[in-house]
Amino acid sequence: MLATLWSAAVRGVDGFLVRVEADLSNGLPCFTTVGLPGGAVREARERVVSAVRNAGFEFPDQRVVVNLAPAEQRKEGAHLDLPIALGVLAASGQIEAKSWSTGFCAFGELALDGSLRPVRGALALTLAARECGMRAALVPSANAAEAALTGLPVFGVGSLTEAAALLGDRERPRRRLPSDELPPPERPGSACAYDLSDVRGQALARRALEISAAGGHNLLMVGPPGSGKSMLARRLPGILPPLGGDEALEVARIHSVAGLRAPSDGIPRERPFRAPHATASTLSMIGGGPACRPGEIVLAHRGVLFLDELPEFRRGALEALRQPLEDHSVTVTRVRDSIRFPADFSLVAAMNPCPCGRAGRVKNPCVCPEPSVRRYRNRVSGPMLDRFDLRIELAPLPFEDWNAPAAGEPSAAVRERVVAARSRSSARLNRPGGNAGLTSAELRTLCPLGAGSLRLIESFVEGGKLSARGIDRILRVARTLADLAGSASIEDPHVSEALFYRGYADP
Ligand SMILES: Nc1ncnc2c1ncn2[C@@H]1O[C@H](COP(=O)(O)OP(=O)(O)OP(=O)(O)O)[C@@H](O)[C@H]1O
Ligand SMILES: [Mg+2]
Ligand SMILES: [Zn+2]
Predict the structure, then answer these.
(1) pLDDT exceeds 50 at position 16
(2) Phi, psi of 5 (to 5 degrees)
(3) Minimum-distance ligand 1 atom for the alpha carbon of 224
(4) What's 364's domain CATH number?
(5) Residues 393 and 447 in one domain
(6) Is residue 400 in a domain?
(7) Residue 362 Cα to ligand 3 middle (Å)
(8) Domain that holds residue 121
(9) pLDDT digit string, tens, across residues 458-474
(10) Which residues, chain by chain, have CB under 5 Å from ion ligand 3?
(11) Residues lining ligand 1, CB < 6 A?
(12) Coil/strand/helix, residue 188
């Protein structure tokens, strides 16, 4: 007897449909899974046998072969337990799947007693089912709310018994998830715990933070200890523009695959802000490993990756960021194949100018020996530095700024300007992402320059300070400055301000 069911699996952060075929034949009793099962799927056999028996069914005393198609695609995860068990029950005639149930996509991890455990990536799995024309999903009840965010009808079940009863139901079963049980599909942006009104002075850094948020530009803050670099960066989430609808689902799917979502989460509108520790390995930064997990840069997709104390990071981990910063994606290679992950993030970093942090100060100057300063700065390579669109130096906070009676401008006011600027740029681009994502070709067509701006840029190129990539980075920032000012065209002051924030005062 042959039975066929549908399930799904995840490759990278994308789901794909899996056909589960269970075949029973006479012969020496055995149970094999074929079709490139990963480790957890091979172990499914043990769980399925126990779960089937403990749920009150019989495990057939025959030769049982389960094939997972497409066979060339590796399948990871314990979520194939449920469709495998249902396939065995259907093939052995213990449940009679009705014709309407062929449009079901089922997944869930089985406990030995036959109850169902929630799985990682429910959103990605259900999205794949929806995109491939499935009519409903059969999922562990703890995953039901998350799966329902896709809009596909979802049946949440607590055990193998319940799943079997549902599939074998004579009538078409009622939808299990009444709409009042559903989480709000979109969670309103929760307020950031820190507010920019706490920051005194540092006008230059505040402005740079605003430009970075508006356009998604990479920002490097260099300054002495205690000048407020970490403080400012922590306040960035509070001024970032909210995620657009498509972006929000994209981010929720990535975080679902990474197991970062609580089951009750709706689709969050706030952008990711990831701040890995300086000891982070290249693997945790980029992703990969046997299970091909997404790394920090993928988790920061559509948001911010913040690296505090930049030179303390491992050289290899930093250099590995260079290509993704250009491509807005990363390709991770495994033994037999390679997987592309989305990684469109803005890089925000902070560092001291030297090990003691006082280089460039007039009062109480730096005491570091010259070689140690050089070693410290060399930890961040030139090509890496070249990727920062905005490079600013913070001065120690003057006492009168610290003692100023008025608090700084609150995050809400800054965010309003950022949101207005971002909506101008996305209207022009007609796709997600800020001006940082403008391609060279788009810069040429969408960002024409006046004669004055061209002469200014020319003088920096002639002076050997600007590379072709440098020009593109300047133009993207200039476009954001024009958007912040509500200007349709890029004017000369926008270009000179962009040059200034890139660290170029004069050619
Ligand atoms: N501009 C500022 N306005 C108000 N308070 C500030 C400012 N800068 C620093 N502080 C105070 O100093 C503390 C330390 O600042 P922060 O950790 O941001 O410094 P940092 O530049 O990151 O230093 P380090 O280089 O040592 O990491 C803050 O928590 C805050 O209390
Ligand atoms: Mg700090
Ligand atoms: Zn020093």
Answers:
(1) yes
(2) -135, 165
(3) 25
(4) 3.40.50.300
(5) no
(6) yes
(7) 12
(8) 2-181
(9) 988 888 888 888 899 99
(10) 354, 356, 359, 366, 368
(11) 199-202, 223, 225-231, 350, 352, 397
(12) coil
